């Protein structure tokens, strides 16, 4: 984990900013995109892997949110 030893502070700062944005109501898609851009900037030698990881995480989060919303609407229709 030598790679993370140098960028640990910057990465921790990005996580704090993302948490603050989430608390202020910024959509999670924007937060995940910003974290992906920060990751590409930090790990520019592995830009493709970081970008594909960010895309995958965004798709999983979007699918999870969509399924959660459909479950909520199904429950509200039953009651």
Could you please describe the fold and organization of this structure?
With 79 residues, the chain is mostly helical. The protein has one domain (2-78). It has 3 helices and no strands. It has helices spanning 2-23, 28-42, 47-78. The radius of gyration is 16 Å and the shape is flat. The model has no long low-confidence stretch (mean pLDDT 78).
Number of helices: 3
Spans where pLDDT lies below 50 across 5 or more residues: none
Strand content: under 5%
Q: What is the count of structural domains?
A: 1
The average pLDDT score comes to: 78
Beta-strand segment tally: 0
Percent of residues in helices: over 70%
Structural class: mainly alpha
Order of helices and strands: HHH
CA-atom Rg in angstroms: 16 Å
End-to-end separation:
51 Å
Describe the sheet with the most strands.
Answer: none
Shape: flat
List the helices and strands and how they pair.
Elements: H1 2-23, H2 28-42, H3 47-78
């Amino acid at each position: 984990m030598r790679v993370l030893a140098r960028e640990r502070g910057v990465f921790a700062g990005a996580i704090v900013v993302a948490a603050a944005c989430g608390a202020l109501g910024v959509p999670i898609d924007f937060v995940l995109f910003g974290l992906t851009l920060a990751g590409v900037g930090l790990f520019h030698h592995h830009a493709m892997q970081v970008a594909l990881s960010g895309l995958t995480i965004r798709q999983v989060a979007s699918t999870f949110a969509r399924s959660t919303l459909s479950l909520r609407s199904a429950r509200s229709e039953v009651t």
